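Morning. Coffee machine broken again, so started the prediction first thing and wrote up yesterday's gels while waiting. Chain of 212 residues, entered below exactly as on the submission form.
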Amino acid sequence: MALVVALVHPDHRATFKLLAATGLRRSELLALEVRHLQLAGDQPHVKVRQRTRWQKGKGQVLGPLKSRHARRELPIPLDLADELQAVVKGPEDALVFASPTGSPYDPHHLHLRVLKTACAEAGVEWAGFHTFRHTIASRMFAAGRNAVQVQHWLGHHSGAFTLSTYVHLLDGDLGGPVIPHPTREESANKVQTDPTPSDDTPLLGPLAEMAR
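Came back before lunch.
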């Protein structure tokens, strides 16, 4: 993915850097407006609020998201935020990645004219827009993120859908044995190290519910 981004034409490289960092749907990426990018501060992020869609007689137009689950905010790396600050210009409602006419890009044309060329040069002719999204999911699972976290990041309607779609990315190794209860030695150490709660120590979780 990094090689493909490096081979993309410089005029479109920022577009695909953001795609590689977020795994946005292509319709979401091309619908981003300047107001959706929060680039200042130590927690830069992208707000996903709309998407592009094809409308007969008008071409690509802006419209609502596919579902309420697609509305989300995704963090982006600081160095990418700095780079975007240098290239993103225009009023709040201007498209971040606009065509020469100022309208949303046609994703099919962008794929044929920009992405396909870079993928061919990188030797991954089979790759496309969704490959970036798939790669984000695999990297998140590899980093130890759970299905719910990946679900919210990708904007899926349920964790079950995320698992059914990306279950092949999960490690099939069963891992080590599960210890059903602590050993005597572990229990003894816990008694020695855990402080004895006082009468005014607040109860947490289920214990608090039972106390009520």
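The beta strands are 37-38, 45-48, 51-55, 59-63, 72-75. Going to sketch it on the whiteboard this afternoon.
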